[in-house]
Amino acid sequence: MSNTFLATAVTGLGTALVIVLPFSFGQEPLWTFKLFSGTIGEYPYASVNAFNFYSLLGANYAADSATLFVFSYHTWGMIFIVMITAYA
């Protein structure tokens, strides 16, 4: 592991801690993970007032279970997330 990678990782974690720390008083240790996982399930829509591809197709507030071509909007979203993550 190179020194550049280690320095980048430490800097990123430090920045995240500085940003999250003021909101952490009185919270349990893993509160951010619960917040993000809870937010994921809040909007069962393809797009909610976002300027993205789904909105361009007119899928603003369309149910994520609705079908676009062969797959549901949710499945398309997961496919593209995996592809972009693998590319990165």
Automatic annotation (TrEMBL):
Q: Which domain of life is it from?
A: Bacteria
Q: Where are the transmembrane segments?
A: 66-87
Transmembrane helix listed as a keyword: yes
Keywords recorded for this protein, A-Z: Membrane, Transmembrane, Transmembrane helix
Identify this protein by name. Answer: Uncharacterized protein
Source organism per entry reads Laceyella putida
